[in-house]
Write a structure and sequence with these properties.
Shape: elongated
Number of domains: 2
Strand order of the largest sheet: 1-3-2
Number of strands: 3
Strand content: 5-15%
Oligomer: single chain
Helix content: 55-70%
Number of helices: 8
Length: 189
């Protein structure tokens, strides 16, 4: 997948300026496909050049004019083609796993610190995801939210958020297990 498809997916629900898209990205897509604001602006220009999005200028009173992007029919076709294409299994590229693989008596303390650091980051991210989940559900239940199905504009984002929650919970379980194993092995004579 390229950033191209993530941007098209973000624009498929509603048009937005580069700034709005960047903020939307931060709250949803960036959880599984991170990109800087500069990358998003460059990609929007590229997509416009390819005819996959169209921009219109919105004049503002006390602010500079902004460009609002909308996905075009060609962009929708591109996104549909991407959706129909084969999905490849995810490849794990994780520097922590390299550290774990190099674990020995001499570096065990540093590896334990790295695992604890990852667990703390996962815990923070999980809390953020749970907060997003609560905001999406509002006063309703998950069952009520899901009953609306794909007609709801944020339905796909919610399903992706559920994956993020499961991922971070898995990271925390794995971290606890590794820390427990390393604690046991260090306590042996």
């Amino acid at each position: 997948m390229a950033l191209k498809h993530a941007v098209l997916a973000a624009l498929s629900t509603e048009p937005g300026s580069g700034y709005e898209l960047s903020k939307r990205f931060d709250a949803s897509v960036a959880n599984f496909w991170p990109a800087s604001a500069q990358q998003i602006y460059r990609e929007l220009d590229r997509l416009e050049g390819e005819g996959l999005v169209r921009a219109r200028t919105v004049h503002q009173q006390k602010r500079p004019d902004k460009r609002v992007f909308r996905i075009t029919p060609a962009g929708t076709d591109e996104l549909s083609g991407f959706i129909r294409s084969a999905t490849r299994p995810t490849v794990i590229r994780d520097d922590l796993l390299v550290k774990i693989a190099s674990l020995n008596r001499d570096n065990a303390g540093e590896v334990v610190a790295a695992v604890r650091e990852r667990a703390a980051a996962s815990s923070e991210k999980l809390a953020m995801y749970e907060h997003l989940r609560e905001a999406l559900l509002g006063a309703g239940t998950e069952q009520e939210f899901l009953a609306a199905g794909p007609d709801r504009p944020d339905f796909g984002g919610y399903l992706a958020l559920k994956r993020g929650i499961a991922f971070e919970k898995g990271n925390l379980r794995w971290s606890r297990e590794v820390l427990s194993i390393l604690g046991e092995s260090r306590s042996r004579p």
